[in-house]
Amino acid sequence: MILSTTPTIEGHPIKEYKGVVTGETIIGANIIKDFKAAIRDIVGGRSASYERVLRQAKDTSINELIERAESLGANAIVGIDIDYETIGEGNSMLMVSVSGTAVVL
Questions:
Q1: Is 30 helix (H, G, I), strand (E, B) or coil?
Q2: pTM for the whole thing?
Q3: Do 105 and 75 form a contact (C-beta atoms < 8 A)?
Q4: Concatenated DSSP letters for 41-83?
Q5: pLDDT at 71
Q6: What sign does the dihedral 91-29-57-55 (CA atoms) show?
């Protein structure tokens, strides 16, 4: 599966548009990660635990996107957009949503 944030793949004309595909993942952040992140906010530095959770959520969403495109008979996804949001009471949940257009090259 070819994945691209651009609307086309250079050298590969799009033969057929299969439709919009999406992938979503919502992950709860736990109290220990929140505590460590709060300390990092005070003293500075990166929060490796949050970065790891975000990467996992992104990877899960992209895998879901690929599965949906494959089920439509696509061999590529173009125009991919990745969005990150916090949701829930107190912004306690992390949501990653991915969308793109499934195509046949």
A1: coil
A2: 0.79
A3: yes
A4: HHH----HHHHHHHHHHHHHHHHHHHHHHHHTT-SEEEEEEEE
A5: 98
A6: positive
